[in-house]
Description:
Blueprint: H1 2-8, H2 13-31, H3 35-42, H4 57-64, H5 66-91, H6 94-109, H7 122-132, H8 134-152, H9 155-177, H10 181-197, H11 199-207, H12 220-224
Helix pairs in contact: 2-5, 2-6, 3-4, 3-5, 4-5, 5-6, 5-7, 6-7, 6-10, 7-8, 7-10, 8-9, 9-10
Amino acid sequence: MADFAVLLKGRSVTLLVIQYAVVILAGYLLGSIPFGYIVGRIKGIDVREYGSGRTGGTNVLRSAGKLAAAVSIFGDLAKGVIAVLLARSFLGTELAAALAGVAAVVGHNWPVFIGFRGGAGTGTFMGGFFVLAPIPTIVVGIFSAIVGFVALRYASVTSILICLLMSPALLIAVLFFDQPLEHLAYALAVGSIILFSHRPNMRRLLKGAERRIGEPAKKIVEEEA
C-alpha cells in the first residue's frame, strides 16, 4: 500500500477518488466486451441459448466450434491484461491494477452491453493475474489444466481449482517473495466471484451430470425438456 500513500501525497482526495472511479469503470466496460457472444453471432447463433448459457470459451467451444472458442478465449484473456496494464500506467499503483482486474471480471460476468448475461470470468481473471503475478499464474494454471482438462476432462474443475489454489499461492508469494498484498486481495475477491458463478457446475458435478470437454451443447430448451 506504500505506492498508494505516495500517490495520495500532493493530490486532493476528491481527485484521487475520481481517478480510481475512472479506472474501475474503464475496467468494467472493457470486461463487458462480449467476445464469445460476438463470435457466436458471426456464426449465426446466440451462445447464451446453448449449453450453460454463458459466453465464455468453454460454452463457445461446445456451441460454435474450435476457431470461435479460440477467438473468444484470446479476447477474454486480453480484457484482463489490458485492464490491469491501463490502470497501472494511469495511476501507477498495484491497488489500481487490482481494482481494474476485479472490475474487468465483473464486466465479463455481468456485461452491460448484452443484458448482464456473460461468462464465469476465469479467462479474464487469468489474463489480469498474468500481468500481476506471472509465475503463480503459470504454475497454478498448468497444474489446474492437467487435473481438470487432461485427467478429468472437466473445464469447470479447472476453473474451480484455479480459484481454490490461486489465493494460497499468492499468500506464499506475499509472505516469502514480496508480492504486493493487493494481488492477494485480487485473488480472494475474484476467486470468490468465479466460484459463485460456478455454483451450477458444482451442482452438476455432485450429481454426475456435468458435461465433459468435447461434448456438444444442446439448446437450453432441449436440455431442460
